[in-house]
Automatic annotation (TrEMBL):
One of its GO terms (molecular function) is oxidoreductase activity. It comes from Thalassospira profundimaris. This is Tricarballylate dehydrogenase. NCBIfam families: CobZ_N-term, PRK08274.1. It comes from the Bacteria.
Length: 462
């Protein structure tokens, strides 16, 4: 036998939440498992490193969550953001099985904390990780070590050997790994600008990638080239508006700008272009990356006044501030006269009402080409502040189609007997477009558990 060959019951590619959970579930069922993480140990965990919470269904108080968030409300929220572009069977499966996500994680060392406030509005719906995604990862990696799961870092899959949809082995560098079953959980292709350009065109060159730089879609491309059935489109993704000063890659959640609903957003021509108060921020923040991408040079600016301070989670970069709108315009490179008119027109259009950012308060403007439907207050209390905005891509939705057993479907209509998928690489089955805060982690948790269970059952019985 070649000393570079390795044999396991199950191979898992991808060391984020979905892959870790699949590996843990399989190992707990008695399978010999190997986890291949493409990143170095210092950057392990994919986009899970940058997360803060997941969104679980609960029909009563759950851990740090109070109240109820039942299937009907959850489904309605999902329909509002995806506009029905989802596989209903898989989506409802995800919502129902999410009810066990928090308990499963807590039993393996993950800790949760009371929810954050401000514009997030997630106190009843989302469970926040104590210490964020890195704490979750560290807890799960500790648990994986107790289960003797073999973990390899800097282990990017370079080739997969399949026959009639059946996994046989894969290549990492000069080493060949064999297994009875394979779980693909290596994320999307958001860090691959050339691939993004296939869906977006040349404007993708101006995108910032708030997710991990290691998600280049290598495994996804290999599987599609080997006959996996594609789900989703190349220009559908989780794209939010982030601070324009963020790094090109790996900026993470701290670069997100969460005060859009408390102010106005203008493009580089100092013109508003969309309703900032359309809905609660967690149901709309993920449309703003796409909106900014459609503006000249893919740049925008959010303008707030002193009244908005303290009402949102501040990003890592400080705002640009000034005592007048004209001065602010000069500092952010906008035409002062135009921005003054935009703000003045907005202020004059605000109708009387009671501001309440915890509800859809109906405080709106009237008579503008683009009206604001909630939380509209005059921007008239200095100092004024601005954050520059650029499209920030978190993860992509184009992936592989799966069954409700997480088995990968093939383009010829068959289903792979021993290849399973979990996490971002299959999230497009549930997310055809749009995004709901925390649901990416929910999909990874649910399908990680399903994939690990099904892979173990196959490997231990064949």
């Amino acid at each position: 036998m070649n000393t570079l060959d390795s044999h396991y019951d199950i191979l898992v590619a991808g060391g984020g939440q979905a892959g870790l959970i699949a590996a843990i579930v399989a190992a707990e069922k008695g399978a010999r498992v190997c986890l291949l993480e493409g990143a170095p140990k210092s950057h392990r965990g994919g986009n899970t490193r940058h997360t803060r919470n997941l969104r679980p269904l609960h029909n009563g108080p759950l851990s740090v969550l109070s109240g109820t968030y039942d299937e009907a409300e959850y489904w309605d929220d999902l329909m509002r953001v995806t506009k029905g572009k989802t596989n209903e069977h898989l989506a409802r499966l995800t919502l129902r099985q999410s009810s066990g996500a928090v308990e499963w994680l807590e039993a393996r060392g993950v800790q949760f904390q009371p929810p954050l406030g401000g514009t997030l509005h997630l106190g009843r719906t989302n469970a926040f990780f104590m210490g964020g995604g890195k704490q979750l990862l560290n807890a799960l990696y500790r648990h994986a070590a107790k289960l003797d799961i073999d973990i390899h870092y800097d282990a990017m899959v370079s080739a997969v050997d399949m026959e009639n949809g059946r996994f046989k082995s894969l290549q990492v560098g000069e080493r060949r790994f064999y297994a009875k079953a394979f779980v693909a959980a290596a994320g999307g292709f958001e860090a691959n600008i050339e691939w993004l350009k296939e869906g977006w065109g040349d404007i993708a060159e101006n995108f910032l990638i708030r997710g991990t730089p290691y998600n280049r879609g290598d495994l996804l491309r290999i599987l599609l080239d080997q006959g996996a059935q594609q789900i989703g489109e190349a220009n559908q993704c989780h794209a939010v508006a982030i601070d324009g000063r963020a790094p090109k890659f790996d900026g993470g959640i701290c670069t997100r700008v969460d005060c859009v609903s408390l102010g106005i957003v203008v493009n580089e021509n100092a013109q508003r272009f969309y309703d900032e108060g359309e809905d609660f921020w967690p149901k709309r923040y993920a449309i703003w990356g796409r909106l900014v991408a459609d503006q000249p040079n893919q740049v925008a600016h959010v303008i707030i006044d002193q009244k908005a301070k303290g009402g949102f989670m501040p990003p890592v970069f400080p705002a640009t501030t000034a005592n007048t709108i004209a001065e602010l315009a000069g500092k952010i490179g906008l035409d002062a006269e135009t921005l003054q008119k935009t703000v003045s027109d907005f202020n004059e259009a605000v109708k009387p009402g009671n501001f309440d950012h915890t509800s859809l308060d109906g405080l709106h403007t009237d008579g503008l080409d683009v009206n604001k439907t909630n939380w509209a207050r005059p921007i008239d209390q200095p100092p004024y502040s601005a954050y520059s905005l650029r499209p920030g891509i978190t993860f992509t939705y184009l992936g592989v189609e799966v069954t409700d057993k997480a088995a990968m479907k093939m383009a010829d209509g068959s289903t792979s007997p021993n290849i399973f998928a979990a996490g971002e690489i299959m999230a497009g089955n549930v997310l055809g477009q749009g995004y709901l805060a925390g649901i990416g982690m929910t999909i990874g948790n649910v399908f990680g558990r399903i994939a690990g269970n099904e892979a173990a059952d196959y490997a231990l019985n064949h």
